[in-house]
Design a protein that fits this description.
single chain, mainly alpha
Length: about 120
Amino acid sequence: MMRTDPTVDGVEAELDEILTERLTEADLPSIQKQPVAGEMAMMDLAWIIELVSTVRKSLIQAVTQANREAQEREATEAPQGAPETQPGLSMPDIGAEQPEGGQLPGPMPPMREVLAGLGRRQTR
């Protein structure tokens, strides 16, 4: 165990910061390997990089946010055949694509037909 210097203010905070940095550095290689191994969508890694470099989030905050957004994407159905259901640059079935739900809406009938149908009585 490290001995702390009683003359240094905020020793506990400094130790916490050092521990956080070491854990973050240990986690970084794992994050970098996941897209190559097909365990993480490339777009999720790109989003983590964007959050860290542009939005200025910590790596922990960026991974947490990207994970939450990936879970939301994976839990939301997209219409069948929609671009969101395709893996894009990522390997299929690693979470890059949204699950398919219902059909894409077809072409809408002309408004004249819709309005004409309102006046008809429906019989069964």
